[in-house]
From TrEMBL:
Membrane spanning stretches: 55-75, 87-105, 117-135
Source lineage: Eukaryota, Fungi, Dikarya, Basidiomycota, Agaricomycotina
Pfam families given in the database record: DUF6533
Naturally occurring in which organism (per UniProt): Dichomitus squalens
The organism's place on the tree of life at top rank: Eukaryota
Domain DUF6533 per the UniProt entry, residue ranges: 21-66
Protein name as it appears in the record: DUF6533 domain-containing protein
UniProt keyword terms in alphabetical order: Membrane, Transmembrane, Transmembrane helix
Keyword 4Fe-4S attached: no
Length: 147
């Protein structure tokens, strides 16, 4: 049994490394795609006046992009513990803020379909629940010291 333990840990480490490489590759593709369509985005969204739809578009795109950039910062080698803690906390906040444009869009879509303010507010509130749950879970994890 003890002879198998190093083999298992090497296999687990190899799996984590492969998972990290896949995450880095996917994030690089998303950032690249975002950069190459910036000229089209400027033509269609930046030229007109600022509307609610444009604000939702910008928030949705750039909060997600910022989330990916901060996730990539977690792979920088030799980062101090203090800096790493800052990156992890900032990444968590950005990942939670991503839910806000989604919730707003869901509420607006419900209002457009049924013209019911109560229903659209309810859908918005229910769409914000993951933020509260994740924030609460993270606060509990930090106070208990578990990951």
């Amino acid at each position: 049994m003890s002879r198998d333990a190093p083999t298992i840990s090497v296999a687990e480490y190899a799996g984590v490394v492969i998972d990290n490489y896949c995450e880095i590759a996917a994030t690089a593709l998303i950032i690249y795609e975002s950069l190459i369509i910036t000229s089209q985005e400027a033509r269609y969204f930046w030229s007109g006046r600022l509307t609610g739809a444009a604000v939702l578009f910008y928030l949705n795109k750039y909060l997600v992009l910022l989330s990916f950039v901060y996730t990539m910062m977690g792979y920088i080698p030799g980062m101090s513990d203090r800096r790493c803690t800052h990156v992890v906390q900032t990444t968590f906040v950005i990942e939670m803020l991503v839910y806000l444009p989604w919730a707003a869009f869901s509420g607006m879509r419900a209002y457009a379909l049924c013209r019911s303010r109560i229903l659209s507010i309810l859908i918005f509130c229910l769409s914000v629940v993951p933020i509260v749950v994740n924030w609460r879970r993270d606060a509990r994890r930090q106070t208990s010291g578990t990951d």
